[in-house]
Amino acid sequence: MAAQNLLNQAFGLILFAIQAPLLGPRAFGLITLVMVFIGFCEYVLDIASTDALISVRNIDARHYATMTAVNSLVAVALGLGVLLSAHAIAGLFHEPELEPILHWMAALPLVSALASAPNAASRRDLQFRPLALRVLAGTLIGGAVGLTLTVLHFGVWALVWQTIVQRTCNVALLWMLVRMPFRLGFSAPHFRELWRYGGPMLLSQTMTWSASQIPRFLLGLYLGAVELGLFSLAGRINEIVLQVTLSPMYAVARVQMRGFIDDRAGLQAAMSHLLKQMGLLCFPLCIGGAAVMPVLFHAWLDARWSAGVLTAQLMLLGAMPYAAHYALSAALLAMNKQSLIAVNSTVQSVATVIVVAIFAPLGLNAAAAALALRPLATAAIPIAFARRRCGLQASAVWRAQAGVFLAAAAMGVTVWLTKLALERHLNSAVLLAVLVFAGAIVYGVLIRRLLPGEAAALAARWRRKS
Fold this sequence. Notes:
The chain is an all-alpha fold. The chain has helices at residues 2-38, 40-55, 61-92, 98-105, 108-113, 116-124, 129-151, 156-178, 188-223, 225-256, 264-300, 309-317, 322-334, 338-359, 364-377, 380-390, 394-422, 428-450, 452-465. Helix 13 (322-334) packs parallel to helix 16 and helix 14 packs antiparallel against helix 15. The longest helix has 37 residues, at 2-38.
């Protein structure tokens, strides 16, 4: 899972690095607006149905067939809704080009809805290799198409076809690699059992999706496609960190922690270890990344993107509290507390919408700062749930991450001071390499001093992989 996310995000970043100077922020802003309306199946139906199929203890082929059929029907309805409302959406944002883009991408909900059965079957058996291979292959194929069309000056349509090809390849390759029969059917008893787990997760994922998409909708409405493109870059950097450092551990821990359902002490020890491991990778990337962001933008992008530096810094720092959110959610899901996850997601999403509605009229950076503080301010909610259901104290959450945070903060200060000392003497590309190298050395030394056990375990794990 780590390899999948790391390589996927690395390739996506390389692709973005080539496309961003050629396409500019407006093209990415338009695609971001489109995904607000057509991404529901990918980010809600697929995740909720996959989790429901994982949670069923005694599963059979009719569970998979029922879920595939229901997902497909919902996806077709959503796709038709997007198709019929494309003209109105384009008028709302005063972007006529949105209408044909929405017409072509309205098929994506059905494509995404077909992935839940093989996805869940692989995860139930902890067989993550097929999932990694299909994502990597789909990203490479879609990226090749998008890059070719970008060079040929197709503008935003390069991103459109890149997305369509990537999603289609992902689903087709997944069915080929898992080798389970494709079946459609409906069984009321099986659907009721799936709904027992999937209903709360559907609400939870809807709230999570809303928390990410409604801000984009409001920012596009208030500020326009160009500002939304700048925000999408900041969001992409934030997403890279989350997907590389937190998501793989969450995906595995959510299944493995089921072994501690009757072992409260074991669950608490596993939670403490998970929090440290998440922070060990997440915190230095967030703090160090924020320190080098001005140099990165100067070396990478043209003047059209320069207004997004502070936005990217704020959004990157705002990713750190998610380590606690991901770890606590994994424990609650392992205990089959989907209803608590749904409540937490609802509160988080409502808070996000309120924050953006208040601060978006004040400008992009004001909204980004408020969004960055939101997960820290609302972390008390999953902590309270974990204390009640898992016996985990709030002090244990922060204690587990304190040493890693101090090491990352010290590294960030060192990198920032080094930048101030050298920025007049080196060009941006060389300075960026120096800062990254210096930050890695400083952080490695500090971790070995403050957390020798965790540092040794991490080094041993990488040695085994290599």
